[in-house]
Write a structure and sequence with these properties.
Elements (H helix, E strand, L loop, with lengths): L13 H6 L4 E2 L3 H20 L4 H11 L2 E2 L4 E2 L3 E3 L5 E3 L4 E2 L3 E4 L4 E3 L4 E2 L4 E3 L1 E2 L4 H5 L2 E4 L2 E3 L4 E2 L4 E2 L4 E2 L4 E2 L4 E2 L7 E4 L4 E5 L1
Parallel strand pairs: 2-5, 3-6, 4-7, 5-8, 6-9, 7-10, 8-13, 9-14, 10-15, 13-16, 14-17, 15-18, 17-19
Antiparallel strand pairs: 1-12, 11-12, 19-20
Helix pairs in contact: 2-3
């Protein structure tokens, strides 16, 4: 079966479907090429960073959708595409961020992200047949200004974390976090207001 048979009458590319949040085929050749580009740039970034941080910043700027001034991202960095990840100014991201930017991921200014954090936009069908067909979709993630995300936290698809909030280490954030709120746990629950 040809891939276009999955979406009769829909002439959009898989990339257009993906970015609209509609189901798309994850093994699309165009998306695979975009993903390979991202992996190559992320690898070059990781190899360049320890010895030439200026050149590494140039590679990072080429990889990401946007990169704010004074931002530091310690490698390794894992992305699906990179171009759908935007990071604000003066943000610090520690080692081993996994940002699956199948939908847009927006990280604000002055954000601090601990090691081993995962920002996961993809969603997969619960039904076995669409999963076997490699269908998936995605919902964007938004991290507001001056947020602190503790090491090992996981932010799930469609979640927004409001400005000045804190996500505790190891938290699994399944719902929006209001501004000025501390959350922790699995699933993350509000602990207090700042």
């Amino acid at each position: 079966m040809e891939k276009r048979d999955f979406f009769p009458g829909d002439t959009r590319s898989m990339r257009e479907r993906m970015l609209a949040g509609d189901p798309y085929l994850a093994d699309d050749p165009e998306l695979a090429a975009d993903s390979r580009r991202a992996m190559e740039l992320a690898d070059r970034y990781a190899r360049t960073w320890p010895t030439d941080q200026s050149a590494a910043q140039d590679i990072l700027a080429e990889l990401l959708g946007s990169l704010g001034e004074g931002t530091e991202i310690r490698p390794p960095l894992f992305v699906d595409y990179g171009t759908y990840l935007s990071v604000g100014a003066r943000t610090f991201i520690n080692f081993n961020l996994t940002a699956l930017d199948v939908a847009a991921i927006s990280i604000g200014d002055d954000v601090q992200i601990g090691p081993n954090v995962q920002l996961l936009t993809p969603t997969h069908p619960v039904e076995p047949e669409p999963r076997r067909d490699k269908l998936e979709a995605a919902r964007p993630i938004r991290i507001g200004d001056n947020v602190w995300i503790g090491g090992g936290a996981i932010i799930l698809p469609g979640v927004s974390v409001g400005e000045n909030s804190v996500v505790g280490a190891g938290a699994v954030v399944t719902r929006d976090v209001p501004p000025n709120t501390v959350v922790a746990g699995n699933p993350a629950k509000p602990l207090r207001t700042l």
